[in-house]
Structures are given as C-alpha cells and as structure tokens.
What we know:
Blueprint: E1 6-10, E2 15-19, E3 24-28, E4 36-38, E5 49-54, E6 59-64, E7 71-77, E8 80-87, E9 91-92, E10 98-99, E11 103-112, E12 116-122, E13 132-136, E14 141-145, E15 152-157, H1 161-165, E16 170-171, E17 176-181, H2 191-210, H3 220-235, E18 267-268, H4 270-281, H5 285-298, E19 309-310, E20 321-322, E21 336-337, H6 348-364, H7 371-388, H8 407-426, H9 430-450, H10 474-477, H11 486-499, E22 500-501, E23 504-505, E24 519-521, H12 522-534, H13 538-549, E25 561-563, E26 569-570, H14 576-594
Helix pairs in contact: 3-14, 4-5, 4-6, 4-14, 5-6, 6-7, 6-8, 7-8, 8-9, 12-13, 12-14
Amino acid sequence: MKSLDYGVIGNCKSAAIVSNIGSMDWLCLPNFDSASIFAKLLDKKKGGSFEIKPVGKYNIKQEYIDRTNILVTSFSSGRNKFEVIDFLPRYNNQSGSCHCPPDVIRYFRVISGRPRIKIICKPRPGYAQYETILEKHSDCLKYTTSAGNYESFYMYSNIEHDNLTKAKEFALTKDSYVVISYNQKISLPDIDSITLEYEKTKVYWMSWVSDTSLPAGMPQKYRDAVLRSSLVLKTLAYQKSGAILAAITTSLPETIGEVRNWDYRFCWIRDASMTISVMSRLGHFNVVKRFLEFVLDIVPYKNEKIQIMYGIHGEKKLVEKELPWLEGYEASKPVRIGNAAYKQKQNDIYGVLMDVIYQSLTLFRNNLDNQEELWTVVRTLVRHVNKNWKKADRGIWEFRSEKKFFVFSKILCWVAMDRAIKIADLFGKSGYADKWSILRDDIKSEILKKGCSKKHGFLTQSYSDENLDAANLLAGHYGFIAADDPIFVNTVMKSYENLCVDGLMYRYRNADDFGVPSSSFTVCTFWMIKSLYSIGKKTLAKKLFDQLLGRMNHLGLLSEDMDFKTKRLLGNFPQGYSHLALIDTALMLYADENDEVVCDAMMPDIDAL
C-alpha cells in the first residue's frame, strides 16, 4: 500500500482503520485514545492486524453503504462472491440513550458460490510491546498482554476458533461474524443479533445524515464530499464528553522517513471555532451543543492556565513518550503517544475561545443558564490578552524550540478583543465595550506596523521577517481585514505565488525545528481556495477545489498532509481539520454561486437536543 488507502469505521467511542483489501490495521479499545489492539499501521511485522485472505485470485472493491459509516469490502472470483461488512454499533435505545459499545463487528456475508478464505488474526494489545496470551474458552477467545499494563479483549464468532487462531483455510458457506469486544459478553451474540445490530446501525447513520441541511441544488460531487466529511466529523465526536478529536491515529508521518510524527487523538481547542460554525450551518446542533459544553467546562474562570489542547475526557496532562519497539509507518520513527504541545504557550487560543463563546451566545443565548459564568470567562480572557498579546509565543504551528512574535497569534488576540466587544454589547455592558475598543485598535495598529512587509505589503509570519505563512489567510475569515484591502489581496497572491505548488499549499517554507517542511498541509489549501474566491479569483478557486476533491482517497477521506510530487496522503488520518475545511469551502462556494444563505435552518430547540 503506497498511500492511505484506508477506510474508517467508528461509533463516537472508538474507531478502526481498514485497508482497501479488508485488513484491519488499527484499532484501539475501549476508547479512541486507548492502547492499540491492532497497530500494523505503525509496524507491519509486530503491530498486529486482522487480515482476510481469499484463496485464489479475487477482485476486491470497497465502499461505504451510502450515507453511513458502515464499510463494505467486496470479494469476487467468478461465482464465488462474498463481502465483509465492518462497523461499530451505534443507535438510540427506546429509552433515548445511545447504544455505542466498545465493539467491532466484522460481518461476513456470502453472496454466491463457496468462497474459500483464510483469516489471519494477530492481535497485539498494549501497543504490541509484549507478547499476547490467548485463552480459549468454549464461547469466546480472550486475548491479554503478557507483561506491562494489563490489557484484554474478547472475540466472539460462529467461525470455528481454530480457523481464527491458526489461519486455517476454510469454505465460507454461511453468513458469519466476528465480534471484537473490550467487555465480556453477558448475552452471547448470534447471526440474528449481528444482523439486527447492522440494521439498527445503518438506520441510525442514514437518519443522522437526513438531518443535514444542504442546498437542494448543490452539485452532487460537492454534496457527496460534504456528507462524507460530516460523517467523519460525527465519528470524531467523543460520546462521553462531546470532545472532537483531531484524528483517529498517532504518528503517521507528515513526510515519509522524517520525525514529524505526532499523536492526534486529542482535542485541540483551536478546531472548536470552525467546528461550531460548520456543524451549525449543517443543522447538527447537538454536535455543536455537546462540543460547546466540553469546551466551556474545561475553560478556567479566572487565573488558571488555558491550554491549547486537552484529552478527550478533559485531561490536562498529555505526557508525550516514544514507543521505540515499533518501527513506525514505513520506518518513520519515532512512534509517539501523548503530545507535549499541551504545555505550549500559544496566544491565538484567546481569540479562538472568545470566538467560541460569541458563537455560543448567538446560537443558544436564550437557552444558556450560565451567562454570568461566561461573562466572567470573557473578562478573564480579556485580562489574559492585555497581559500577553505583546509577548512572543510558539504560534499556530507549534514551534518547539523558538518563540517569535507570530502575526497570526497577534491577529487572534485582535479577534479576542473584537468578539469581547460584541459580547459586551449583547449584555448591555457598553462601558466595557468602549474601554476594550482601545486595546483592540492598538493591537491592529501594531500588527499593520510591525507584521506587514514594508517591501511587498503582505502579512508576514512574524515581526521583522519577510516569511509568508498560510495561517495569515485566515485574517479575512476572522474579519481582521476586508477581502478588498490591498494588504489582504497581497497576502493572498504572494502566498499563492510562493507557497502554492501544483495546487497544494505549504504552511510556510522557512526552516523550523526539523528543517524545511516538504509536504503540503491540506487545510492550508482550503484556506487558499477560500481566500482566492473572496478576492475575486473565483475561476481559479473552483479549479483548485475540484482538483483537491480529486485527490481524496477512494472513499472520499483526507489526511493531514499530501506529498507535492506523488499526491499521496500523509499524516494522521482521517484528519478532522481537513474535512472541516472541505465543508466550509464547499458551503462558501455554493452559497455565493446561488446568492443565498447555505443553511437557513431554524435555531435549535435546545430542550429537544
């Protein structure tokens, strides 16, 4: 496999990554951030996987059941045909609670003939650090770690156990199943219960998609991409807390053979603003409300440090460590779990949080019973901005060894003050608004004086340099500068000329802690498309957008990065930020074309969510 030709299945509690030939190469249970059971993605020999090997030459095709997160891998060879349906159960019980157990179901359905297959199942719980112990019971197989932290899971099947544990060849003569469960089952599964789980899960996803608000006339290729992206984002929304993960995986490299390998199974607050904006426009207010609750629950009221990221349960300490026994994706070491960026100072977080609070008030103000607490948080954030906006920080790209006066961080400090003023006006606090307007204007004045190239008139990466940074394309998105302002137009066009290569964007082209970046950061390409469109380069923007859609994988999924030359997907997968930006861009392009608001959905009934 030369690219990320994988599908993702999930139920908002955990997820699995399945290759285009049906091999389950990544799975963590019971939660997204738990230790892996299968990690072939990170070590082909030791990581562990669940492979399906048809005997003979078979044609293999893979697709999602339309409007669901259920993945079907079809195998055909003459009359011999079967399919493997992979999913994690998710549906609403009669009580109204959500059924989403830490289970993965592989449902083997015979279409015709007597296909012969081998199942090569080699679990390696605990990130494959130690050997795995297999316990055979009459009703299940139990796998445990042999040392280190105790990890275990169970496997239930109507396939003979020896066929699962010894990779024996056998004829698939009836519909069969394998259930991989973190918990020991009280009621044993059978083919009828598996079929019922499948049907209920299918109905759940189809129903969820049917609630998505899209313009009736949106071109089908855009519609398909937006709906698939929305399903990815829903999958990444953690059931227990409402947190939204950046990605399912850890340590998939930004560039093959290099060391930019990070754990993305956490929640970056920076993603919150776009998530809320995009999902509310799609009409998925429940996702928005639960994410808002998560964000506002972890935001400190007064003097506690504000972090840029948190664990999916709200954890504040995300200690980063390496797993040296794993060879890494295509030998790209190190493999990391945890992420040391949680300790970084990034001043853009104030603008992100203030924008989130402002959006929450505009969406849900009449249904919020914590407005006084929010007002306390707003005034606290203003104090943080006043204290820190002149200081250097690590920036949006999380430079590890150097602090700079990053322009994007300064712009987001302006955003913080701009939204604080709007919030003060909402609450009738005109005295605060008047006072804060002075600081907002001071921040903008300094950015335009120190953060703008005197020679070329574009926004620079940091004060006193001439480097370009794709993050500054968001200056228009956040309202810092008008689309027709010469500074913004110059920023867009200079970034296109210097950072865009064959329709793909660099984040920046100056050296960082690990040298000069060599892959494209996918979200930046979407930012460029939106920016070009906003300054009137609509034909070029549409061309780049269609081109980028054509570079998704066979299932319409995107990772964090792309290789400039080969266009292969790189980085953690599937990447929530990439899919957020895809939706945001599609809605902007279509809304403008049709001179209408993309989503005129009624404000949500919070009591019904």
